[in-house]
Amino acid sequence: MHLPPKVTERAFARLAEIGAGDQGQALRVAVEGGGCSGFQYEIKLDAPEADDIVLEGQGQKVVVDQVSLPFLENAVIDFSDELIGARFVIENPNVASSCGCGTSFSM
Known about the structure:
Elements: E1 6-7, H1 9-17, E2 26-33, E3 39-46, E4 53-57, E5 60-64, E6 76-82, E7 85-91, E8 97-98, E9 104-106
Parallel strand pairs: 1-6, 2-5
Antiparallel strand pairs: 2-3, 3-9, 4-5, 6-7, 8-9
C-alpha cells in the first residue's frame, strides 16, 4: 500500500482561487514515461476518475491515478508563486535526479 502524496494548504487555496472545484475539476498529478530524465510530471485540471486516489482540502480535490501513485509516495504537491512564475510544484524525495526543466526526473 503506497501512501498518497501530501497537498499543501497553498495548493488547495490556489485551486479554490481559480474555482476548480466549482467547475467539477480536480488537479490531476500524473507521472508519465518520457522527458529528458526518464519520467515527467503531468499536472492539469481534469475530472476525477472512479479509480483515482482523491485528496481533499478547502472544498478542492487533487487526484492521482493508481499507476502514478508509487512514484509520488511521500511527495508534496505545493503551489509556488515566484518571479519565474506561479505554478504547482512537486517536491519528491524519491527522485534520484532531475533536469533543468523541473518536470522530468529519474528514480
